Amino acid sequence: MNPKPLLVFLPGTLCTGAIFSPFKNHPDFDAIIIDFNLEDSLEDMVNTVLKRVVTRPFIAVGFSMGGMVAFELMRKVPAQITGLILLNSNSLADNNERYNGRQHQLNLARQHGIQYLFQDVMLPVFFANPDSEPGQQVVSMANELGIKTFEAQHKVLTERPDSMALLKTFNKPALVIGAEYDLPCPVEHQQQMADALVQGQLHILKQCGHFAVLEQPQTILDIIDHWIEQNYG
Hints:
Elements: E1 6-10, E2 30-33, H1 42-53, E3 58-63, H2 65-76, E4 81-87, H3 96-112, H4 114-126, H5 133-159, H6 164-169, E5 174-179, H7 187-196, E6 200-205, H8 212-215, H9 217-232
Parallel strand pairs: 1-2, 1-3, 3-4, 4-5, 5-6
Helix pairs in contact: 1-2, 3-4, 3-5, 4-5
């Protein structure tokens, strides 16, 4: 019997490791859940990950910004990466529209606070029902991390390189999970990433948006379980 694979979970912008709580203590894989705080470069984020993982081989699981960290890990320690799971992520470099949008959000947060930004501005983009439990968990995580973390992660997102060419060189098992109503990371781009990956497998979840990991955690876990059985069982 093969040893259980190690999955390293990488959270998105202004998300704590709590976003991956449903994935802890799973019988079929070991999990390390990373928390980012004031790291203001992908290099710093990679160092945070490797302090926990050390030299062990692992499957990188990146949600949103966490996918960008996964790409940097693929550049820095390719031999350690045994697989890739992208959850509502984006492999493109930043552009002026996204940069200006984040800068506006950061200015709103500085003027009115993180609570206002997420509750009144961001949640209606992310959720059909902003007052839902997943929506309020997003607000809670953002409040916990605060403005300084938002500033640091804004810098990370601004400086990220384009990674589409990198995906084409990755010849290990890869899983791309997107969502029907994900506006920041739309279905079309999830398809592009899956097509670029040599062993890419794509799943698009219905009736959810960018935070599918909070809205449909059991569906995602079932998909990951099946993918692990197919490739590492």
